[in-house]
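Before drawing any conclusions, I looked closely at one protein's amino acid sequence and its backbone structure tokens, quoted below without any editing.
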Amino acid sequence: MFSTFIHILKSGGSLGLYSGLSASLLRQLTYSTTRFGIYEELKSTFTTPTTTPSFPLLIALASTSGFLGGIAGNPADVLNVRMQHDAALPFSQRRNYAHALDGLVRMMREEGWRSLFRGVAPNSMRAVLMTASQLASYDGFKTLILSHTPLSDNLTTHFSASFLAGFVATTICSPVDVIKTRVMSAKDREGLGRLLGRIYRIEGVGWMFRGWVPSFVRLGPHTVVTFLFLEQHKRVWRMMHGEGERLGERV
């Protein structure tokens, strides 16, 4: 990871660390907004004054939300992967997208609209795993902490549950992340089965967790910050609408 960090600094300078920032922001606006919004809405639908959704049901709700979010965010995800991978390509093969909107226009003009959904199958699979392991596990860890420790529903609980959720999500999604990155950054089309066979022959089983550390360095803090802000946002929203602590929000 450190050698990659140094290579990026040498080849692209400090700004190289933020390659694909516009695509990453667009991805969050599409993928994350969709999955979080649908998950919270579904969770509220299955919450009654006396019961909350069970953990298996939370996994199902999160999986559904993640699948739809993966489809919604796929165009921005393809752009994000390509813009971040550009520096590793020979100069003649670089796409040099100026920003996310430029990338979207050029992809549709040069490759057709289907290119926006390249890798949508592994990406949606990854979104299902990510949302189920991140959102459902966060709610599960939060429930366990509130039920089996003296902690109350506060920042310490939110931080602990979100840190554990980030660890779980990184581990579960690592194999799919490897596949997704290679499919989206590839110049030529290759079937998923052939790709898996080729990776296994070259790298063995270790390919499944290649890049786990940088993934956790990115996803761990991202998960913590996301849920800390989400909890405070929900609390402020309830205060603005004159609502007390609802049973469904303690899941």
